[in-house]
Automatic annotation (TrEMBL):
Keywords: Acyltransferase, Transferase. Pathway: Carbohydrate metabolism; tricarboxylic acid cycle; isocitrate from oxaloacetate: step 1/2. This is citrate synthase (unknown stereospecificity). Its EC number is 2.3.3.16. Pfam families: Citrate_synt. PANTHER family: CITRATE SYNTHASE, CITRATE SYNTHASE, MITOCHONDRIAL. GO terms for molecular function: citrate synthase activity. It comes from Gilvirhabdus luticola. The keyword Transferase applies. NCBIfam families: PRK09569.1.
Length: 435
């Protein structure tokens, strides 16, 4: 057993009695009430999911295992000369709740490298897609095609004990995660640089650096990749992608089914696809102003035009957050250091000075502040990834780290099939009248 798996096993054994006690001693204790608005309004704020991997505070933003993003970026081990930590270290942290030592991450990098070979048929699946297909559709299908590799399914058919579900799920999750950067880079090269052909990974490199290498990008794109995958990894359990992954896995579908479904949820413009929408919307503004930074009044007019035509401002607002997203801030700080004179960054910064006030005046959005997607495309564009349809694939690679960690723990703690109750409009009307 690897060091990580051994530690994880120990943590699982320690944690199980807490769940058992909560259920046995407090199973019928009421912890929240549910309003009509929540039932009709997408279940906002209903406390009905449990995860220890991350927690999202509306005013502070995300914490991974209790650590803020700034702390995660500071504390996790880094490669020599790197500004951003190893992605593998984050997987270790999410699974165990502990910051790994340098040698523990190095072991994990070797383990990932041993698991990353992608079967030939996956490349065939990707190659069979028309070049106009959206990269998220291709990614979802590629992950789905790997389903036949599932250890969990083999063990399940052999009559595995429930207590061991986490073990083969860990194997599946780690095998899939190790392959995600290869699949992402292959899709990128096939769609946008077919002249390059397939770029094989470099066995001496870690997750982020290997991705940069396969994408044909020089430094500091390795750090961009690490930063990008780390900040997108998890956002507690209720967001569409994380929740979808958890829901599908709750029926004991294996991690390939669950991750493919998670990718499909992420591909919507109100969720992960917003990062591509931000760039599309910005390009409209840049074209209109011929690349010359507009005045504050011109910016305001552009924002109002979007709102008055019944569209949302992409990259702004959030279902839970009520402040500027720290994932936005991390990327902004990176931009200030590495690309302060980038023209698109200047547009993004200028918009930051006008959009929140306009959204407040507009009076609809509960959160007028920018989210992660308002900044992420700018960084990618600066380093030559200008094909913005691809941006959500990067989000999906990052998000799979959190979703897969959650699924392993779901199995370890024996969380059951998810099955909330629905009611009809008639029933709801009767309920409110009888109160
Ligand atoms: N621009 C214009 N209107 C907005 C808005 C925005 N950025 N954000 C919210 N609103 C509107 C909503 O559309 C809703 O309008 P209706 O009452 O007409 O339906 C109203 O304000 C209330 O919405 P809310 O409670 O503040 O927000 P929700 O929880 O319903 O939705 C989100 C959250 C993210 C979907 C929404 O803010 C939005 O559409 N933002 C733009 C898209 C975006 O950036 N998504 C990425 C989010 C981060 C991620 O998951 O990647």
């Amino acid at each position: 057993m690897s060091t990580l798996k051994e530690k994880l096993h120990k943590k699982i054994i320690e944690h199980r009695p807490r769940t058992t006690k909560l259920l046995k001693d407090y199973g019928d204790k009421v912890i929240a009430k549910v309003t009509v608005e929540q039932v009709i309004g997408g279940m906002r704020g209903i406390k009905s999911l449990i995860t220890d991997i991350s927690y999202l505070d509306p005013y502070e933003g995300i914490r991974y295992r209790g650590y803020t993003l700034q702390e995660v970026l500071k504390k996790l081990p880094k490669a020599k000369g790197a500004e951003m930590p190893y992605v593998e270290g984050l997987y270790y942290l999410l699974l165990t709740g502990e910051i790994p030592a340098q040698n523990e991450v190095e072991d994990l990098i070797i383990d990932f490298n041993n698991r990353r070979i992608v079967p030939r048929y996956v490349w065939d699946v990707i190659d069979s897609f028309p070049s106009e297909s959206h990269p998220m559709a291709i990614l979802s299908a590629a992950v789905m095609s790997l389903e036949r590799e599932s250890h969990f399914n083999i063990k399940y058919k052999q009559g595995m004990n429930k207590k061991d579900y986490w073990n083969s799920t860990y194997e599946d999750a780690t095998n899939l995660l190790a392959k995600m950067p290869l699949i992402g880079a292959y899709i990128y090269n096939k769609l946008y640089h077919p002249e390059r052909g397939h770029r094989y990974p470099d066995p001496s490199l870690d997750f982020g650096a290997n991705f940069a290498y396969m994408m044909g990008k020089d430094k500091p794109y390795d750090d961009v990749s690490r930063m990008y995958f780390i900040i997108h990894a998890d956002h507690e359990s209720g967001n569409v992608s994380a929740h979808t992954g958890h829901l599908v896995a709750s029926s004991l579908s294996d991690v390939y089914y669950a991750t493919s479904a998670m990718i499909n949820g992420l591909a919507g413009p109100l969720h992960g696809l917003a990062n591509q929408e931000v760039l599309r919307w910005l390009q409209g503004l840049i074209d209109l102003t011929h690349g010359k930074l507009p005045s504050k009044d011109e910016l305001k007019a552009y924002v109002w035009k979007t709102l008055n035509s019944g569209q949302v401002i992409p990259g702004y607002g959030h279902a839970v957050l009520r402040k500027t997203d720290p994932r936005y801030t991390v990327q902004r700080e990176f931009c200030l250091k590495h690309l302060p004179n980038d023209n698109i960054f200047k547009y993004v910064d200028a918009l930051y000075n006008v959009v929140p006030d306009i959204l407040k005046e507009h009076g609809k959005a509960k959160n007028p502040w920018p989210n992660v997607d308002a900044q992420s495309g700018v960084v990618q564009w600066h380093y030559g990834v200008t094909q913005y349809d691809f941006y959500t694939v990067l989000f999906a690679i990052g998000r799979s780290i959190g979703v897969l960690s959650n699924i392993i723990w779901d199995r370890a703690l024996g969380y059951p099939l998810e099955r909330p109750k629905s009611i009809t409009t008639n029933m709801l009307e009767e309920m409110v009248q009888s109160k």
